[in-house]
Amino acid sequence: MAALLWLLIPVIAAVGAALWSTWAGRRRHKAGDANELTGYARFREVMEKSNSGA
Predict the structure, then answer these.
(1) Is the dihedral of CA 43, 46, 48, 50 positive or negative?
(2) What sections of the chain are H helices per DSSP?
(3) How is residue 53 annotated by DSSP?
(4) Helix (H, G, I), strand (E, B) or coil at 30
(5) How far apart are CA 20 and CA 14, in angstroms?
(6) How far is CA 40 from the centre of its chain?
(7) What are phi and psi for residue 37, nearest 5 degrees?
(8) Where does residue 48 fall: left (phi above 0), alpha (psi -120 to 50 degrees), or beta otherwise?
(9) What is the pLDDT of residues 5-45, one digit of tens each?
């Protein structure tokens, strides 16, 4: 019986790791890439303006 208890420890750890990995890998925001792309486009425009004045 003691051997089964020792085998239960890694099984519980594996289940815990699987639950944590699904929680950590979830998608956190519902916004698509459009918001990120528009932000990057604005950043690029600002960087081009600052480089053209030099």
Answers:
(1) negative
(2) 2-24, 33-52
(3) T
(4) coil
(5) 10
(6) 19
(7) -70, -40
(8) alpha
(9) 999 999 999 999 999 999 998 877 666 778 888 999 999 99
